[in-house]
Amino acid sequence: MTTANDTTPFSRRNFIGVAAAAGAGLAVATYGGASYARTSSATRRGAGYDGPDVTLQFWNGFTGGDGPFMKDLVDTFNGEHPNITVEMTTLQWGDFYAKVPNAVAAGAGPEIAVLHIDQLATNAARRVVVPLDDLASELQLTENDFHPVVWSAGIYQDQRYGIPLDVHPLGLYVNTGLLGAAGVDELPADRAALENAVAALQESGVEQPFWVTATWPAHLMFISLINQFGGSIYDAEGATATFNSEAGVESLNWLTSFIESGASPGDVANDAQAQAFRQQRNSITWDGIWMMNEWAKVDGLEWGAAAVPVIGDKPAVWASSHQFVVTSQAAEDDNKLAASSAFIAWISERSIEWAKSGQIPARNSVRESAEFEALEVQSILAAQLPDVVFPPTVAGIGDVTTPTFELAVNEVILGKASAQEALDAAAGKADDLLADNREKYGG
Hints:
The chain has helices at residues 12-24, 67-80, 93-105, 117-125, 133-138, 148-152, 176-181, 191-203, 218-228, 246-260, 272-278, 292-296, 334-349, 352-355, 364-367, 370-373, 376-382, 402-413, 419-441; strands at residues 54-60, 84-90, 112-116, 155-156, 159-160, 163-164, 166-175, 284-288, 303-306, 317-320, 322-326, 360-361, 388-389. It is α+β, with helices and mostly antiparallel strands. The protein has two domains: 5-165 and 321-368, Periplasmic binding protein-like II (D-Maltodextrin-Binding Protein, domain 2, 3-Layer(aba) Sandwich); 169-318 and 396-441, Periplasmic binding protein-like II (D-Maltodextrin-Binding Protein, domain 2), CATH 3.40.190.10. The radius of gyration is 22 Å and the shape is globular. The two termini are 30 Å apart.
């Protein structure tokens, strides 16, 4: 995930770009039925590669502060593997998801890529990427090597398409200097504590301590909250929208209560709450783990991180995951397949360096290391792994978010509609889109 404000992959501008690009790509034909299993035994040697010199194209959307961390890893890999040259191309995520399918179809795309989990099933259904069950088997990777929730997220229709790299959840960030001055010594962990902290900050002179945005990341807060209140965005099969439930209404009413009480401005634009946090006008914010490096750059800002507070009946938090995939283009060349396996294995084993970009490693051995424990914010937010909420692994699911419940959240926070009214309208539209996706992709 990118950290810079104007290049955050889920900024309003780029998030819409991702959805629009994915939708526009539906006209592209699916590709052949190639899979990683085509590899010859001569070059299938697990994490190693002893074949002839090959060059691999590796595409991703790491255009912000995370990009240099991945570039350093690629450069180190190349230095240790004289028979493999990995060339890394970074694109804005919206451009990435639009270009990869067409580039792979033309044979001018990457052999290896990184996808977010809400795009993995779509690209699997269109055969842009190939099954990796054999690769996982060769590398002796099993669920025991990863947290179960992120391991299972790489499976679509009983086949593995993704090798997990990381998990990136929301977290709670607090201006500890202002909170301490208000007489609050602990970061809030539940509803009462958060509401009391907001009240204490207001009493101490912080006029608007908890900014609720009308766009990013409000819909991610909504995903967290609805699950905390016992609801969900979709049913378990990803076939029907369920976000217009009582839990959904309660979630939005809780968010808007801070605007109604004056604790938040009424029309907070995309990422404006993050800028206000830097300027010490916003004292409490929920944002992605990747923002930790942004806060660290601000001179004089005293801040701390904690798990997202439990506002409802149980802990739950939005998260996404970057997963390595191998494209159908790579499946045309046995040596490139084998070299791709070596690259993915090498990065996975050394993902502690990637964690420093503001990520939680998916691999247990890395996450349980003393070096990871020393990464304060990452290790704090890693405690949320049992509670992360991923979307169902359904083709086209990433296209449904923006025009449905994300729009409903925006309308309610701006006071344009009641929670029930906006969510009901959005759920009807979501059901139509989900039905369209089943027709497009099957299943």
